[in-house]
Amino acid sequence: MADVKQRRVIPGTPIFDGDAARKGYALNKMCFSFNSAANRAEFVKDEDAYCRKYGLNAEQSAAIARRNVLDLIAAGGNAYYLAKFAGIFGLDMQDIGAQQTGMTKEAFKAKLLEAGK
């Protein structure tokens, strides 16, 4: 039987599938830990140590240090877990959406409002 696994390609849109989930497991597990205030405080105290504690690879650790959501998604991050990371720095999903589209947050919000009309 031929391998029928096909990937849907949507230009500019990374698909979070099983491969991405496996790739980003440590990163997403770490971001999930940020549900706890104590864990958020531990991360802020020593980010590198916290990343090592969860076994992040070099690509993931570097993306964390840069606060770059697109790089985190490319490293296997899931937007829902990444929102927990972004929340530590007072960022919300509109900040993430703006970063993903290369827009300012204000322009992204305006685009959302216009689309909702």
Indicate the overall shape: globular
Note the beta-strand portion. under 5%
Task: Output the number of helix runs.
Answer: 9
**Cα Rg:** 16 Å
Task: Kindly state the number of beta strands.
Answer: 0
Multimeric state of these chains?
Answer: single chain
What helical percentage do the residues reach?
Answer: 55-70%
The stretches of 5 or more residues where confidence is low (pLDDT under 50) are none
Q: Please state the structural category.
A: mainly alpha
Biggest sheet descriptor: none
The CATH fourth-level homologous superfamily of one domain: Dioxygenase LigAB, LigA subunit
> What is the third-level CATH name, the topology of one domain?
Protocatechuate 4,5-dioxygenase, Chain A
CATH class of one domain: Mainly Alpha
**The CATH architecture of one domain:** Orthogonal Bundle
Topology as a string of helices (H) and strands (E):
HHHHHHHHH
Average pLDDT rating: 89
How many angstroms does the end-to-end distance come to?
Answer: 49 Å
Structural notes for this entry:
This protein is mostly helical. Helix 2 packs across helix 7, helix 3 (37-45) packs across helix 4 and helix 8 packs across helix 9 (105-115). The protein is 65% helix and 0% strand. The chain is globular and about 45 Å long. It has a domain at 18-90: Orthogonal Bundle (Protocatechuate 4,5-dioxygenase, Chain A).
Provide a compact summary of the structure:
By secondary structure, the chain is an all-alpha fold.
Secondary structure layout:
Layout: H1 18-23, H2 25-33, H3 37-45, H4 47-53, H5 58-66, H6 69-74, H7 79-88, H8 93-101, H9 105-115
Helix pairs in contact: 2-7, 3-4, 8-9
